Amino acid sequence: MGPGMMGWGYGTGWVGMILMAAFWIAVIVGIIFLIRWVVISTGTGGRGARSEESALEILKRRYARGEINKEEFEEKKRDLA
Q: Is the dihedral of CA 71, 73, 76, 81 positive or negative?
């Protein structure tokens, strides 16, 4: 028998098919992770990207934490409006 499908020549059998499938699965998973990383790092993603808070939201949060008192809050709120 010469090399070919029935002999040990060119074919690698089941091992080759399993390794080839694993290779392509790894390539596809790698591409998916690369796309996710690019979307999140550029800030165009929905959940991954944090939108900028408005000045009023920051002011409300500072007041709620007690960093500023009511008078300062009202004064800065008027300045923002």
A: negative
